[in-house]
Design goal:
- There is one protein chain.
- This protein has helices at 45-56, 77-86, 125-138, 159-169, 180-188, 198-205, 212-224, 263-276, 281-296, 306-315; strands at 8-13, 17-23, 37-43, 65-72, 89-95, 100-107, 112-117, 142-148, 173-177, 193-194, 229-233, 239-243, 246-251, 317-320.
- By secondary structure, the chain is α/β, with parallel strands linked by helices.
- It has one domain (43-92, 125-320): Ribokinase (UDP-N-acetylmuramoyl-L-alanine:D-glutamate ligase).
- The strands form 2 sheets. Strands 5-4-1-8-9-10-11-12-13-14 form a 10-stranded mixed beta sheet, sandwiched between helices. Strands 3-2-6-7 form a 4-stranded mixed beta sheet.
- Bound molecules: adenosine-5'-triphosphate (ATP) and magnesium ion.
- The site of magnesium ion has 3 residues, from loops.
Length: 327
């Protein structure tokens, strides 16, 4: 034992986003258009994971949830409002500029969606060093860290690898949800958990993963390198969960889909919530899948009420996968 257990969870979001949705009936490019409604929500993968966790452990309950990373000081309001509403501890570093804004122009009449993504933050070397120090400080009182999403300009591609190495040395449990080069470097630093989707995993390994057997063999290969828990999500086909020679397939029950954005983030939150309560691999698969399925019916990073989550958990189909890829 290394002293008192550290129950808190910290999510690290290096490249947060503001999702701005404009409701523009009959949107026409090259013409003057009128928006009839506008919504802005705080986003970015780590922020979403914090929001899901905070709604499952409300009021700062038994598991305090902390968000850190960078926020552009010009548009912090939407993030601060979310943190206040959900009782998320705000340890984000303010840096000059705006967090990236992703504009969605929705034309319900024409059933079209137009995306305009603005450039993100440019982070200075001293801010990156300050963040490493802040994360180190948080490791003194928190035992679980989620490193999620893309890496902004100015931060090295090895960011998640560096953070993973620091945090593992402090005895923390580290989950990484990233893609491309940052994921590749992070995997080499052996986080405790990763949750790529099947495309991110195929990109990481440089080979197509067309069958479930290939997906499970790939997840198993990663576990062979020292990662404890590999979760590979496959959209509507569910996800495989591989840990310690065991592999499970979890398929969600049929649900209404309003938006699939953030389903992967909800899955990460659900798996960690189950782990923190001492759940086994099946509990992680059920809770992760129920969180993901639960958020599909909603537009923002929100979960349905606890009784609906319990219903979804019971309805998740979990199958033990036998005799997979043991070459
Ligand atoms: N269309 C869908 N129908 C039913 N379940 C879905 C659907 N899309 C996603 N899910 C559920 O959500 C989980 C995660 O989804 P997905 O594989 O799309 O994650 P992702 O690509 O990491 O998403 P993101 O990074 O955008 O949050 C799936 O394993 C599944 O349980
Ligand atoms: Mg994802």
């Amino acid at each position: 034992m290394k002293g008192a257990p550290k129950t808190g969870i910290v999510t690290v979001t290096l490249n947060p986003a503001v999702d701005q949705t404009l409701d523009v009936p009959g949107f026409t490019a090259g013409a003057v258009n009128r928006a009839v409604a506008e919504t802005r929500t705080a986003g970015g993968k780590g922020i979403n994971v914090a929001a899901f966790l905070a709604s499952c452990f409300p009021g700062g309950g038994p598991v305090p949830v902390t968000a850190t990373g960078f926020l552009g000081e010009d548009n912090v309001g939407v993030f601060e409002a979310l943190f206040r509403r959900r009782h998320i501890h705000d340890h984000c570093l303010r840096v000059p500029g705006s967090s990236r804004v992703n504009v969605k122009v929705v034309d319900r009449e024409g059933r079209s969606v137009t995306d305009i993504n603005l450039p993100g933050l440019e982070v200075r070397a001293e801010s990156w060093r300050a963040l490493l120090a802040a994360v180190d400080g948080l490791a003194a009182s928190n035992g679980t860290f989620v490193l999620a999403g893309s890496v902004p300009a100015g931060v090295p591609e090895t960011a998640y690898a560096e953070l993973t190495a620091h945090l593992r040395a402090r005895g923390a449990f580290v989950a990484v949800d990233a893609s491309g080069a940052p994921l590749r470097h992070a995997v080499a630093a052996r986080p405790d958990m990763i949750k790529p989707n099947v495309h991110e995993l195929s990109d990481l390994l440089g080979r197509p993963l067309s069958t479930r057997e290939e997906v499970v063999a790939a997840a198993r290969e990663l576990c062979g390198t020292g990662i404890t828990l590999a979760v590979v999500s496959m959209g509507a086909d569910g996800a495989v969960f591989v840990e310690g020679g065991r592999a499970l397939l979890a398929v969600p029950p049929p649900v209404t889909v309003a938006s699939t954005v953030g389903a992967g983030d909800a899955m990460v939150a659900g798996v960690l919530a189950a782990r923190l309560e001492g759940g086994d691999l099946e509990a992680c698969a059920r809770r992760g899948t129920a969180f993901a399925a639960g958020t599909l019916a909603r537009l923002g990073p929100e979960l349905p009420p606890p009784d609906r989550i319990a219903e979804l958990m019971a309805a998740v189909r979990v199958e033990e996968l036998q005799g997979f890829g043991t070459s």
